[in-house]
TrEMBL record:
<feature type="binding site">
    <location>
        <position position="221"/>
    </location>
    <ligand>
        <name>substrate</name>
    </ligand>
</feature>
<dbReference type="InterPro" id="IPR018089">
    <property type="entry name" value="OMPdecase_AS"/>
</dbReference>
<dbReference type="InterPro" id="IPR001754">
    <property type="entry name" value="OMPdeCOase_dom"/>
</dbReference>
<dbReference type="GO" id="GO:0006207">
    <property type="term" value="P:'de novo' pyrimidine nucleobase biosynthetic process"/>
</dbReference>
<keyword id="KW-0456">Lyase</keyword>
<comment type="pathway">
    <text>Pyrimidine metabolism; UMP biosynthesis via de novo pathway; UMP from orotate: step 2/2.</text>
</comment>
<feature type="binding site">
    <location>
        <position position="222"/>
    </location>
    <ligand>
        <name>substrate</name>
    </ligand>
</feature>
<feature type="domain" description="Orotidine 5'-phosphate decarboxylase">
    <location>
        <begin position="11"/>
        <end position="237"/>
    </location>
</feature>
<feature type="binding site">
    <location>
        <position position="192"/>
    </location>
    <ligand>
        <name>substrate</name>
    </ligand>
</feature>
<feature type="binding site">
    <location>
        <position position="39"/>
    </location>
    <ligand>
        <name>substrate</name>
    </ligand>
</feature>
<protein>
    <recommendedName>
        <fullName>Orotidine 5'-phosphate decarboxylase</fullName>
        <ecNumber>4.1.1.23</ecNumber>
    </recommendedName>
</protein>
<feature type="active site" description="For OMPdecase activity">
    <location>
        <position position="68"/>
    </location>
</feature>
<feature type="binding site">
    <location>
        <begin position="66"/>
        <end position="75"/>
    </location>
    <ligand>
        <name>substrate</name>
    </ligand>
</feature>
<keyword id="KW-0665">Pyrimidine biosynthesis</keyword>
<dbReference type="InterPro" id="IPR047596">
    <property type="entry name" value="OMPdecase_bac"/>
</dbReference>
<feature type="active site" description="Proton donor">
    <location>
        <position position="68"/>
    </location>
</feature>
<keyword id="KW-0210">Decarboxylase</keyword>
Amino acid sequence: MDNKMQLAKDKLIVALDVDTIERAEALVKQLNGTVGMFKVGMQLFYSAGPDIVRRLKEQGVKVFLDLKLHDIPNTVGQAAKALAGLGADIINVHASGGSAMMRAAAEALQEGAGVLNIPAPKLISVTILTSIDQNTFSGEIGLPGDIKDKVRDWALLTKGAGLQGVVCSPREIEIIREACGQEFEIITPGIRPSWSVTGDQKRIMTPAEAIGLGASYLVVGRPITGAADPFDAAGRVLVEMTEGI
Ligand SMILES: O=C(O)c1cc(=O)[nH]c(=O)n1[C@@H]1O[C@H](COP(=O)(O)O)[C@@H](O)[C@H]1O
């Protein structure tokens, strides 16, 4: 396999947004070896329970546990401590919870993993959801300024709190790279190949564009998991990713 294809695979995270362990494991079986990591989000975690993470880890795959924790620092810290033992590779919190909340999560993950003598998951923050456009941001939510500037400010806050990266739209990759440097992880959902349906996503880009701008990882859900043949769709996404490398 050429280097570009291997790099594309390492950078592709597939969102297992399904209801059952059986459906999730069927997708993992179909896609394992084609993608670098699988994402367990609220839908699967709340339907299948925490064991889904342990089961996936037993199959030797990397897991991004996307529960987007957001509460007062003590509550988030205690929740993060409980999650630390599941063995996920990445966990996330909302940056809008502030730096005390993010630090509480980071410390709790270290503590929880330390007790079990396992590596702590990477901790990253979610900035402004990719389903939010400038109209919703300024109008409904009533936040001042440009989405890009807020995402950059929250990425800096995240870095300052000791976290390893952010989730954001690929449209903010450049501004975050400039502010936070090359080592900072930038994970981008809102990926839509030209042949896929946009749906509820607003700040989107193609796989080639996101990779070309320097995303650390791309998160892709429905364009792959909702396709008639997910293995074929993942292959097409990977080819597009290699075009941006
Ligand atoms: O944290 C996330 O993963 C996330 C943040 C964000 O801003 N936007 C976003 O779409 N996501 C997740 O990324 C996945 C995108 O899925 P698709 O829109 O189906 O490709 C979903 O599982 C979302 O929960």
